Every structure is written in structure tokens, then in C-alpha cells.
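Continuing from the previous page...

OK, I double-checked the sequence for NAD(P)-dependent dehydrogenase (Short-subunit alcohol dehydrogenase family) against my notes and this is the correct one:
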Amino acid sequence: MTTSLKGKVALVTGASRGIGRGVALGLGEAGATVYVTGRTLDGRSTRMPFLGGSLQETARDVTALGGHGVAVQCDHTNDAQTKAVVDRVREEHGRLDVLVNNVWGGYEGLHLWDERGEKWSAPFWEQPTSVWDDMFTSGVRAHYVTSQLAAPLLVEAKGLIVGISFFAAMRHKDTENIPYFLAKSLSDRMASAMANHLRPHGVTSVALYPGLVRTEGVLLAPEGAFDFTNSESPQFIGRAVAALASDPRVFEKTGQVLVAAELGEAYGFADIDGKRSTSQRADWQG
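Thanks. Re-ran it with the corrected sequence; updated C-alpha cells here:
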């Protein structure tokens, strides 16, 4: 299939780096106008400077790939700032075709390796309560509020909402982080529930699982921590979103949990290195 999003407008939250940046690039190479949000407008993050990445860099790269990148600084824990982003999209384009809810504070403790990271796999009563807040305030709630504010524009465009989730939602094991499992599970359920409300309006809502993604944080892990044999670039996830957004029959998938690797097989796109990862669904369903 031909992946062309020329004339389409997208909003990707949490796009300074990582999966959000990759999603923006994937939409950019398909020709979309992509609004990218996050806290790091330019330079380096004051909280995690070792990760690098900024909105201005992402926007420039989106434009270089053939789209049009627009950097908008936004802390998505602040509803007024989120509203200002959506209002700007409405004022400048009058439409929104794709919303990708990616912003996520849940991994911050792992990146900083503070008490949250050190106790990631500890029993829940030994973890700081801030782990819950990272997952839900800077994650699930931010996704809900952004969707709520953007819904009228998406209804007008019969658009697409993609919530970035993960396989951890499928089952909980004795060493899994409980807030993480619950947050990802809720993200999946939220995509399904929003699909119910949006179905009469022709808007598609899905959850999307990446596999092991070679983000800046993952690549900083100690040698041997990850087996990258079956891994993905962040841009591969963007190609999955672009394929969905350009599919005239995407509405048939509304309410579903989708896997980027499976979409690669279905739509026939590869990663930036020409490879295709395989789905981890069977591993997690166990």
C-alpha cells in the first residue's frame, strides 16, 4: 500500500526523544504536518540531559523527511498547556487527523536510577508512591485529557487516536511492577472504551504495542542488558502509525490492541535498516 499523509495533520505527545520522536519521523516521511510536544524545546533536558533530544530537533528532522514539523513546548501534566496545544492546532489548521498519545513519565525512575528505579521490581509496599504518579499522572491521565480535548477535531476529520501501550498489559507476573501493569492495562481499556464513544462518529481508537525499541534510554543500558536481535528503531513504530493513518479501512480495527511488528507484516513495511521484527505477543500471552 502507498503510505501518503500529505495534507494530514498529526499531534504526537512526548516527542523530544524515544518512541514519540520515532512516531513523528514516521509520520513526517509520509508527508504529514506533525505537531510534536514535550518539555524539552531545545538544548537538553534539565532532568535527564544524558538522554539528549529536543522538540526542535524532532521538528527539523520531520521536515527534512518530507513532512512539516512544528515544535510546541508542553508539560502534559498541566491541562491548560495541553489545551493550548490543541487550540493552536485548531487555529492554524482547523483539523486534526491523527493523535498519538505517547507521553509517559513511567520510565523516569529507571533512567535516573533513583529509588523508583532501584525498587522497580520490589514488592509494591516497598516502592515509593511516586511510581504510581509517574504511571498515571504523567501517563494515563495525560492520554485521557489530550484525547478529551482533541476529540471534537478528530470527530470532524473522522480521525485516528493511537495510544502507545506495551505487552506488560497482557499479564502480571510476580516480579512485575504493579503500577506499570495497571497503567498499561488501563491504556488498552481506555482505547477500547473511547472507541465505543467514537464509533458513531467514524473515529478510530486503538492501542499500539511496540517491541523492544532502541530508544536513547535503552541504548544506555549496561552491555548485555538487552538482546537486540529482535528489536525495533523508534521510527519503525512511526511507520506503523503512518500505515494505519493511510489505510482507508482502518476503522475496522477500532477498539483493538495492535502490535507494530504484526502491522509490518500486514502492511508490508520494514524498519529503517530494512529488517522486520517479529511479534512478542505469544511470549507475553504465555
